Amino acid sequence: MFSRPLFAASLRQAARPVARQAGLLRPTPFLTAFQQRLLSDHTREAIEKAVSSAPVVLFMKGTPETPQCGFSRASIQILGLQGVDPAKFAAFNVLEDEELRSGIKEFSDWPTIPQLYLDKEFVGGCDILVSMHQDGSLAKMLEEKGVLAPLDGSESGAGEESK
Hints:
single chain, alpha+beta, 8 helices, 48% helix, disordered C terminus
């Protein structure tokens, strides 16, 4: 008997705007938890070192051999289809380190994983990679950066071996 009037009163109260005092303001609701925290110097340096470790760097869930999410798997497949040279590629498993997982999101100001970096520059997540793959801009960018594996019997591969 008491539950119905109590429930109705709760709904009416919830529907009313709440006047907040200046000292009790909460952070704006559109900021997520990772945007509200500060990235430690140690984590920032570790991420910068990781981004600098290879021309093509992917922060992903799992490893290239065993991706742990569909978006990471799709990103690896796209890079493979594009012909990225494995010698110029590095992947970092964010599931192994919670600080890396939350820190990379703040570092790039991008809320999702996987995240691709090309020559220390953030490219985007899986949705961006798919879009760029479909419109051909990813192939062009990878070719311009010189990160594609040489074709078998190509002059560039033979030239590098003779140096």
